[in-house]
Amino acid sequence: MPRQYPGAASGSLHVSGQSNTPLTRPAHALTHQQVADELGADILAGLSRDEAARRVVRYGKNELGEAEGVRPLKIVVAQITNAMTLVLILAMGVSFGIRSWIEGGVVAAVILLNVVVGFFQEYSAEKTMDSLRSLSSPTASVVRGSEAMVIPSGEIVPGDLVEVKMGDTVPADIRLIEAKNFETDEALLTGESLPVRKAHHATFDDATGPGDRLNVAYSSSTVTKGRAKGIVFATGAYTEIGAIAKSLQHQDAKMRPVRRNAHGRAGPHRYLEAYTLTMGDAVGRFLRVNVGTPLQRKLSQLAIHLFFIAIVFALVVLGANGFDARQEVVIYAVATGLSMIPASLVVVLTITMSAGTRRMVERNVIVRNLRSLEALGAVTDICSDKTGTLTQGKMVARGAWVPGLGTYTVDLAREPFNPTLGAIRFAPKMPREIDFDAVNTTTSSTEKDNPQASPSGAVVPPADLLANSTSGLQSFLTVASLANLATVFQKDDKWHARGDPTEIAMQVFASRFDWNRLRFTTGAAAEWREVAEFPFDSDVKRMSVVMARTITTTATPGEQQFIFTKGAVERVLSVCTRYSAADDPDAEVDMTPAFHDTVLANMKTFAALGLRVLALASRVIDPETTVSEDTNRDTVEHDLTFRGLIGLYDPPRPESAAAVRECHEAGIVVHMLTGDHPETAKAIAMDVGILPAGMHMVRAELARAMVMTAGQFDALTDDEVDALPVLPLVIARCAPSTKVRMIEALHRRGRFCAMTGDGVNDSPSLRRADVGIAMGLSGSDVAKDASDIVLTDDNFASIVSAIEEGRRIFDNIQKFVLHVLAENLAQACTLLIGLAFKDASSLSVFPLAPVEIVWIIMATSGPPDMGLGFERAVPDIMRRAPRSLRTGIFTPEFCIDGVVYGLWIALLCLASFVLRVYAFGGNGNLGENCNDAYSPACDTVFRARATTFACLTWFALFLAWELIDMRRSFFAMHTGPSTRPLTQWMRDVWRNQFLFWAVVGGFVTLFPTLYIPVINHAVFKHTGISWEWGIVFVAAALFFGGVEGWKWAKRVYFRRRARREVGGGRAWEEMDVQEKVFATYFSAGEGESVDGNRRD
């Protein structure tokens, strides 16, 4: 039976291989003419433009599923139905209910401001994410109305005549009608890493699987060779890859399932349980305590808790006043309740996260959901691909061995396609006889004085190497050049290349000796012509071409045919019977077991250098043998002469080693999961620092666990994996299922991991990882859809940048939440303790009026909170261990800081109120009805209230500056040496100009509230002050002294605790990278080998 997937447009099943509108049979079971007839297509002229336009309307866009898009109404509702906004709405209702119009109006304005600002910020963030969601190939070549044109791939429709060539991405599922040497890379769909050669004339049974439909090219696959034409028969979600993407999409069920017994029955209590839980989920979604990011959920839950605390505080106020229902008592209760509500928190959090997504884009990272912004700061392990992520994804030939001659080594150059750059060294030795470990030290020191001195040989010009060889090098280069479909050419003084990266590297190597394929196969007098090609096959792991050479040097001109073969070393050796024992055409001898072992030993030497090793071979074909494309390859791929080995290197990105080191500094373990040979993977891992350079010092059992193949790892049970002393740092020959097992193993150890992936088969591991990272350049749309973030440059260093940015956002959120909650606690404590201040009618006089409280929460603290959200990363952010996402921002230090700062501010505010009322200029008279209106009898209370308000305003502004760093002194935030130590703090303050002007704005807006008539008396319930500013200045100095003293105590405590934890040694931040990451792997004594014996 053909595979079936949920239909794109309805709940019906879509049959794999069918069109958007079902054909009589799947497209691969019909001839291309039958497919064209059923779709109403023309295989010569294509669709007309009018018909194509009609089909776009009929079938829809050629996209993987329909995105929900940005829904403004949903955003507005979300802004209103969060717990904090609902508390404010309740306070507004109470204020209006007791006819306290001013207080109710102010709270209403705060609600409106929250909703409007939050809406625009979240709308902007959603639009940004929506616009960056798809990074698929944007254009396609089609024939419409007999004209070839390039159109957006989203406009492709069933029946379109599409042309694809090498390097193109197939825009939709197409039934091939013409193919010339056509191969596609279907690894994104089938997981097959090798290209698939297509046969357009063939037809297959209906039930044939996707991997065997050789007459179909699939959407999102890449053309690796040749060219083709085809009729589009499926677009969008009806393509093979679209159907898989559709099956991966899921909607969380909003109804809780009914639990049933073993017989499938459920009693009434089970239905009641399901309905109750469903109702609870609905209430949770309404209050947003079970939706959004983990931090957003925690803050919503915090708001619920604060709501109940506010009710308790309001009841305390009412109880302290004998539950008198007069307006001023109720408004005092409302004020106390409002003091516990962090009204600006939701807006500031939204703005900070929105700004974070935009900063991520600047660092080549696209955030697909806000949850990942928080998660990035907690990552403890990164599981990364090698090719294209840690490496450049560009093959370069680094070494070659020709039997009977020696070893050729190519120095790395800046331009991998330029054959004129990079010197060639020659040593008349086999690779296993060369000490490559000494090459780097020699070339970095001795070579400066003597460029010819190197264990890998002297630098020799390519022309001299050819002149010094009789036939061995020429035969080797002929195979490298002609068993090769890549094109390397120079245009406008720049070198270009097209084709498979492996073949490009071999072609560049041959071009160094002027042995380019174009030289021999193009032009009127071309020396060689292609007769047949036997493509690379995953079973035989070889590729061969049969070439005919024009002979003009004899009396009877004619042609002589040769077969040239390259491939996996073991597979090429299996069809070789001879080799050249010397640089002479007559020196060919029979292959022996000893020479066979020599070849394998030399291959292992190259692989240990991180090279991918291929073997080259050739022979002359008997004149009686007729060869064509239909010839069985086994009839010609035999009795070959082994010509040598070539080692290809995928260079690490220049920034990879530094990025891995930065991960280690940050306490993050890097794992490399690759499909390469174990020795190649190990060499690259050591090159970039994933494995320690001193692997010989690693204990034996750890060394075996640190580098494993997928076969070895998958053969272990979960218990055996958990018993490993360390999870592998390198897994070679890795399969998608191995990635999933690795994630599960990390989770069982309590680790928080990020996983990279690019193919459809990587989707399960991307979804299972805590942070799924898709590749923007090489990744499939399905992988991107399953991921949390997308790298636009496929670069490992961008992952590290994302983690640093995630930590910065996490830090800044913690800072402004601490600032808000400390202010809330200070206000609540001031009002609760202020209940003791009774007027002549025995009613409590509040030290802070309701509007003053809301003003400080929104106008005074709001902008500085945003400034803290924009604060740059602290200097040591990537030199500390990852934070625990389980505790989130609410760490013990955070909670204690909030209590200390809140109580200290409350104490100073109450002291300023008491001093003004009872000590300086006051006689302790609290008047009567001073909570409602100004009168001469209330002048003392209004002045004391203004003094307290001014103090609290200044404390809120100064605390924002103090929280730039939660431990460093405000006057010593600069980490390095400064030329102006006394004024460095001024420069630090000016660095974050948003925060600077927010604080200045807070100072400036204080004065209108104090001195403008009507506003001061009727709205804020205070009056202008004069000499009371002295109290404010003294309180500000005490505030700085207290906060700085607390920070100093914290620094002393954490330094001592860190030293105790390391047994008197150095703290984490002071450790070297080797100590942080690899110390536990090494032997106990320095200089000891694994067996514990002393080395000389």
Attribute tags:
alpha+beta, eleven-stranded mixed sheet, 38 helices, 1096 residues, elongated, disordered N terminus, disordered C terminus
What does this structure look like?
The protein is an alpha+beta fold and 1096 residues long. Helix content is 44%, strand content 15%. The chain has 38 helices and 30 strands. Strands 12, 13, 14, 15, 18, 19, 20, 21, 22, 23 and 24 form an 11-stranded mixed sheet that branches. Strand 28, helix 27 (763-768) and strand 29 (771-775) form a beta-alpha-beta unit. The longest helix has 38 residues, at 796-833. The chain is elongated. Residues 1-12, 132-137, 440-451 and 1083-1096 have low confidence and may be disordered.
- What is the radius of gyration? 37 Å
What sort of overall outline do the alpha carbons produce when their principal axes are compared? elongated
Number of strands: 30
Name the helicity range.
Answer: 40-55%
Unreliable residue runs? 1-12, 132-137, 440-451, 1083-1096
Q: Residue-averaged pLDDT, rounded?
A: 81
By secondary-structure content and strand pairing, the structural class works out as: alpha+beta
- Oligomeric state, counting identical vs distinct chains: single chain
What is the end-to-end distance?
68 Å
Bin the strand percentage: 15-25%
Count of DSSP helices? 38
Largest sheet: 11 strands, mixed
